[in-house]
Amino acid sequence: AMEKSYISLFLLLVAISCVLAKDAGKKDTKETTAKPKLPQTLSRGWGDQLIWTQTYEEALFRAKHSQKPLMIIHHLEDCPHSQALKKVFAEHKDIQKLAEKFILLNLVYETTDKNLAPDGQYVPRVLFIDPSLTVRADITGRYSNRLYAYEPSDISLLYSNMQKALKLLKTEL
């Protein structure tokens, strides 16, 4: 019974936060004069000044032809873990700089490519693909039950994994 009440409390919180978000949207008319809001881009908040691809197919094509590795972030807009990771990712100056060396894609839906879910379809998860279009399943986070998950506290590990993805490129190609 305890578990059920937790679930309903969580759903209630989600419902409340959605309502609050809607109300915030209504007030936009006043705020736009004070602070112009950038249109929602393909970055979805992961780095508005970075160049993001629109589809998985486009990302693969660009990785192959630019000889840059591809970084794919699977997330969901209403997932608190995704939001927390997004915040630290977007505010991490070194990560944002390093990300310019990647083809970038963030997805709020799953692709049909099973290689992008080597150990399940959880979010947030981050995978690297090299220009030969091989998923680098060897570049993992610190959780054995969710190999490609990162918490906000793992941001330096994600940064070093990005460096690793770029290094592998130099040694292998």
Automatic annotation (TrEMBL):
<dbReference type="GO" id="GO:0005783">
    <property type="term" value="C:endoplasmic reticulum"/>
</dbReference>
<protein>
    <submittedName>
        <fullName>AGR2 protein</fullName>
    </submittedName>
</protein>
<dbReference type="InterPro" id="IPR051099">
    <property type="entry name" value="AGR/TXD"/>
</dbReference>
<comment type="similarity">
    <text>Belongs to the AGR family.</text>
</comment>
<dbReference type="GO" id="GO:0002162">
    <property type="term" value="F:dystroglycan binding"/>
</dbReference>
<keyword id="KW-0256">Endoplasmic reticulum</keyword>
<dbReference type="Pfam" id="PF13899">
    <property type="entry name" value="Thioredoxin_7"/>
</dbReference>
<feature type="signal peptide">
    <location>
        <begin position="1"/>
        <end position="21"/>
    </location>
</feature>
<keyword id="KW-0964">Secreted</keyword>
<dbReference type="InterPro" id="IPR036249">
    <property type="entry name" value="Thioredoxin-like_sf"/>
</dbReference>
<keyword id="KW-0732">Signal</keyword>
<dbReference type="GO" id="GO:0005576">
    <property type="term" value="C:extracellular region"/>
</dbReference>
